[in-house]
């Protein structure tokens, strides 16, 4: 059995801060991490590997420094790591990203593809289902439980107020939720090996069989029209009112904010 | 000369920090207040290879280096000094002498499970009348057929009661002084061996520090580590390495206290502005930072010397001497900067200040380090 | 692709157990605004098996056209049959905008559909507008964990697709007399679309016993005065669908359980609404709640530092303001139910 796990290196958004003066994003010194849902996907694959002897390949598309995310995956225990990187892939939206990743994955053998549900920097949840569409695979999103059976999976698919137990045959794609598992730590020896013993395969545009009009910024149907810092919290209002006035003022404000 | 960590050491730092933050720090206060051995954290440390970082893979270790190992002690100690010393005592004192002096059979039987995290190690040298003066050993070992018979007691033994394997020093020939000391690998279930009174301590209160009692304790002959009479050499060599671990523990405690303090002085407001806006605070923080960084240079240098197989006794002694002093100074300042809150148990700096003190005492007091350093320089 | 051929605003309305979800109705409300601006119609699309009884609701909430596709394979959501049907509808009707709820269903379906029809999709939008000169859809969404807002356009592909979080847009008033055109569409779904098997559907209850999970916290401090005071807070919390939390002073006094404590030595919370009642606002407390989206503070002491972090500060006695607030809430409820 062969499993491909798609991972993304993301800035740890919980540590992103806004410059209080300019209101812009301070990116300096923000650590990069493996996207949490993707890490759950890695863990799921490694658990299947422990049970069945499956081979696990981690793949990422990103700038050269995304190599670090792959080293981390190697230190966790994946067998193979592929970096898909080329300046021409830059600026891709989810459509072009999934198109490129699908082209890379086509070069691999796989029974199962696992992606995270969504990345914390974009929160779109689109790339997983879109890869499945490009590869014409059945897919199940929002997976919070996996059982491996002979030739198929039984997965627990989360919804807001329910879950479905779904049987899906290989080859297929699933998108993993963080709730799926508690990812393992790297081991110190794993970290040493990831840098000293293991190789990362690098694929550029030259290595992929893709329509060049469909990649990167040019191949992206969506464009960023503008981006702006979220309004900084203005100083609050402090009022001294009669209890009844205060109560109706509060209700009115909560309605304004769609809380009521 | 290169002051930069390699990419793998940088990644290890991230790993250690994350592990400490999630698996160690949340229990630090409870471990201290209830004098509780952090068994859950230790199990996780064992599972993830933290108990065999510097040992070769063939002996069940991680195949990393001393620097990788002491960085782990540093980061664990920044969260919980108790946890730091458990790993340090296990690795440097319990397992390392077997790597250095053990026979192939001893390495297979004892080092491997220790490095794999299946067994926990400890080291027993100190006695009621033999502390800094290690030559005053009164525990005796007498050969009787296939076994040595040990009689006597040890005190202040870290990991006692939880350890599976103890490296024990005993006199095989009292007339020869330090050259009459031998080292033994003692299993916890050996007949005639038991763990005695537990010490109640000022700091590192979750680490188990107990007396060991040997009453006609039978140890198989093949568990003699190195040769008869070489025990003092085993002990001194082991302590040289151990000192880098304790130096890293001190460094971690100091860094942990600084991190807490930086957070606090930014949040805490007095006279309408945060403490960090006062120059007196800024200058204190600058001093603390600088001293910690200087300590780090010494500690890492000692580790790198050990990895390069250069003599490192002096470097280790300097690192421990300085890092322990810095830990004491920085934690004291940290409590001061926290004011009244710093003296309460709601903030961890009071614990860190109590924890810091032991680093000036165990595995060679600061005075012993000065003896080692001066002996290296003057002789 | 000639984008001039694409007309109309489509809304995918999801149903569970043959009942349409609110987010679909909210989107119909928003779609009506957009359609008005560009002079076109709103079409609501409903897929399922026994869905006929829901059509009129879609009209009543503002859809000009309702397209219903009933098919046994559409009874419970499965990615492939739903994708197939929507792709067919897009081919036939060529909508210029297609909106989905950003739900666990919509966030699976919309990307799959967008890939199949080769167009762009913007996720989790909070603002949808029309650019005046071009009539392009401007879809604004938070990024980087909500630290930045980005406005996205899809200039050369149609439909312009977007998903929108539940609760962001507003429903129009229900009007049963609104006329609408109903198209009950038959679409052939190949058997190969049935590529996964649903073995079991299990409903889960959402219990949030953890204050970190609660969307609304009514939090008490020393000013609450005792256990009785917390009973009042509990009433407010239950009315708002939230939970009661507290400052350390209260948990130390055993007025409330320790696991309700917010702050440095308690829990860090970031609810949508945090009402701090009789809390002075010590830094140790503020550290645990300052990330809340909306902070309301009620305190007798106008110099209390809690007012520094509050969006809305009310100087006064919580024991008077909260009962009045409860009464006001009840009035609002009555007004709402009268509207329906």
Set out the fold topology.
The complex is a heterotrimer of chains A (260), B (379) and C (340).
Chain A: E1 2-6, E2 9-11, E3 17-18, E4 25-26, E5 32-34, H1 36-52, E6 55-61, H2 67-76, E7 80-84, H3 94-106, E8 112-116, H4 127-134, E9 139-148, E10 152-158, E11 162-169, E12 172-176, H5 188-196, E13 201-203, E14 223-229, E15 237-240, H6 243-256
Helix pairs in contact in A: 2-5, 3-4
Chain B: H1 7-33, H2 39-47, H3 66-79, H4 81-101, H5 104-116, E1 121-124, E2 140-144, E3 147-158, E4 165-171, E5 181-187, E6 193-198, E7 209-220, E8 224-225, H6 231-267, E9 269-270, E10 273-274, H7 279-307, H8 313-342, H9 349-358, H10 366-378
Parallel strand pairs in B: 1-4
Antiparallel strand pairs in B: 2-3, 3-7, 4-5, 5-8, 6-7, 9-10
Helix pairs in contact in B: 1-3, 3-4, 3-6, 3-7, 4-5, 4-6, 6-7, 6-8, 6-9, 7-8, 8-9, 8-10
Chain C: E1 9-13, E2 15-16, E3 19-20, H1 22-38, E4 42-48, H2 55-60, E5 65-70, H3 79-93, E6 97-101, H4 106-116, E7 121-125, E8 127-130, E9 137-143, E10 148-153, E11 160-164, E12 181-185, E13 196-203, E14 216-220, H5 227-240, E15 243-246, H6 248-252, E16 273-277, H7 283-286, E17 294-299, H8 306-309, E18 312-315, H9 318-339
Parallel strand pairs in C: 1-4, 1-6, 4-5, 5-12, 6-11, 7-11, 14-15, 14-16, 16-17, 17-18
Antiparallel strand pairs in C: 2-3, 8-9, 9-10
Helix pairs in contact in C: 3-4, 5-9
